[in-house]
């Protein structure tokens, strides 16, 4: 396990390592995400509008759910110092207010020459996949951290 607040250096990563974050989606989270992102689609903000859609109730922004993956990558695996290179996302099902989202990340490939990790990313609600994809992140080496310190 990585030391608290430090994350992993590239040399510490191994294929198969995993990390999970769980978050209950609250109405205030959805409103805050709308304010932050500027995405004021009424399917996220209006009970009346959402009731007229196939979802029948307000849903969270897809990128709100994806941001939970970013939280795992930036704070847990690999952790602080990791920098996104790319992220693919497949939205499989809606996430509703009150849902408990489990964001799961797994190291699937390591490129030592470039200090990059490829990670499988999946978000589930009640064991049903609501989002999946793949991230590639650049991870600092021990040497690069020593030079900074």
Automatic annotation (TrEMBL):
Transmembrane segments: none annotated. GO terms for molecular function: (3R)-hydroxyacyl-[acyl-carrier-protein] dehydratase activity; fatty acid synthase activity. One of its GO terms (biological process) is fatty acid biosynthetic process. Residues 23-115 form the MaoC-like domain. SUPFAM superfamilies: Thioesterase/thiol ester dehydrase-isomerase. Gene3D superfamilies: Hotdog Thioesterase. GO terms for cellular component: fatty acid synthase complex. Keywords: Lyase. This is MaoC family dehydratase. It comes from Microbaculum marinisediminis.
